[in-house]
Write a structure and sequence with these properties.
354 residues, alpha/beta, Rossmann fold, 3-stranded mixed beta sheet, 13 helices, 12 strands, globular
Length: 354
């Protein structure tokens, strides 16, 4: 029987990068289940269009009959669960979608996975894995000087988004401890790189700067995040799938803490070299009203995955941000395709100037 892997949310930013990385390096075919919401984009996967090893299914993980049929038909030996609403600002304006996808969707997927896994023979059950991709935001906020988040850090989510992801983490953990489902949870820091939807910080600032538009920075710009290049994250997930211990959690971070203002200035500096406009691009920075409950600092301690699985990021922030800027500059058609009216309406709503 041919091996298959089921990936949820594989047309989104991280999911699509993972699918592309998988197709480059692995032989097992991919079943890619994605609802194609605003951030899901089949153009992310254009380079593998027509490849028989990539089976795309446009459906919702909340539809149990669809998920059940996929298990029955393809009998995958692993699930990588990316599908999630992931933008904090959107969760503040409309939390219901986050509860529906991140909590109810994960529950539905777990139930169908458990039913399928229970039907397998002993060897197949031992081989099966369910990897749940989560976020460092479930841990809450750190103060300057606090040690970085380890896997033992208490959950203290502060936004509807992070609360919904924390709930999904708890469900996954419970299905392992209650039913024996072979799950692994990963909590990653802020990803960046190719194919990221341009409501997130780096592509938003990059595209606005190219077009001479204001660069809206929340508050004082000193909120700190740990930045992880998306291909490094994908490589870590493949190692977790292959070698990770069942029932464990692995934090995946880039060891690259930067303030939001540092990140914006780095983007502007690269653009000053490659797309000079007569004045520094950072002259476009405008500080806007901070979002409600904006966490001050996230930082990931990725020691466990380094010691157990031998993973560490290949990209520094300096190399990763340069690769990212160059990708957007070289892929203008992709950019045009995602800059829809719906996106412009969202930006107008979200970034109200002081």
């Amino acid at each position: 029987m041919q091996d298959f892997i089921l990936i949820t949310g594989g047309a989104g930013f991280i999911g699509a990068n993972f699918v592309l990385r998988w197709m480059q390096t692995k032989t097992a075919p991919v079943i890619n289940l994605d609802k194609l919401t605003y951030a899901g984009n089949l153009q992310n996967l254009a380079s593998i269009s027509g490849d028989a090893k990539h089976i795309f299914v446009k459906e919702d993980i909340n539809d149990r009959s669809v998920v059940g049929r996929l298990f029955e038909r393809y009998q995958p030996n692993a699930v990588i669960h990316f599908a999630a609403e992931s933008h904090v600002d959107r969760s503040i304006h409309g939390p219901a979608d986050f509860v529906q996808t991140n909590i109810n969707g994960t529950f539905t997927l777990l139930e169908e996975t458990r039913a399928y896994w229970s039907s397998l023979n002993t060897d197949e059950r031992k081989r099966f894995r369910f990897v749940h991709v989560s976020t460092d935001e479930v841990y809450g906020s750190l103060n300057a000087g606090d040690p970085a988040f380890t896997e033992e850090h208490k959950y203290r989510p502060n936004s509807p988004y992070s609360a919904s992801k924390a709930a999904s983490d708890h469900l996954v953990r419970a299905y392992h401890h209650t039913y024996g489902l072979p799950t692994i949870i990963t909590n990653c820091s802020n990803n960046y790189g190719p194919y990221q939807f341009p409501e997130k910080l780096i592509p938003l600032m990059l595209l606005n700067a190219i077009n001479g538009k204001p660069l809206p920075v929340y508050g004082d710009g000193k909120n700190v995040r740990d930045w992880l290049y998306v291909e490094d994250h994908c490589d870590a997930l493949m190692l977790v799938l292959e070698k990770g211990r069942v029932g464990e959690t692995y934090n995946i971070g880039g060891w690259n803490e930067r303030t939001n203002l540092d990140v914006v200035n780095a983007v502007c500096s690269i653009l000053d070299e490659s797309r000079p406009s007569g004045k520094p691009h950072n002259s476009l920075i405008e500080f806007v009203k901070d979002r409600p409950g904006h966490d001050r600092r996230y930082a990931i301690d990725a020691t466990k995955i380094a010691n157990e699985l031998g993973w560490k990021p290949k990209e520094t922030f300096e190399t990763g941000i340069r690769r990212t800027v160059e990708w957007y500059l070289n892929n203008e058609q992709w950019v045009k395709g995602v800059l829809s009216g719906e996106y412009h309406n969202w930006i107008s709503l979200q970034y109200v100037r002081k």
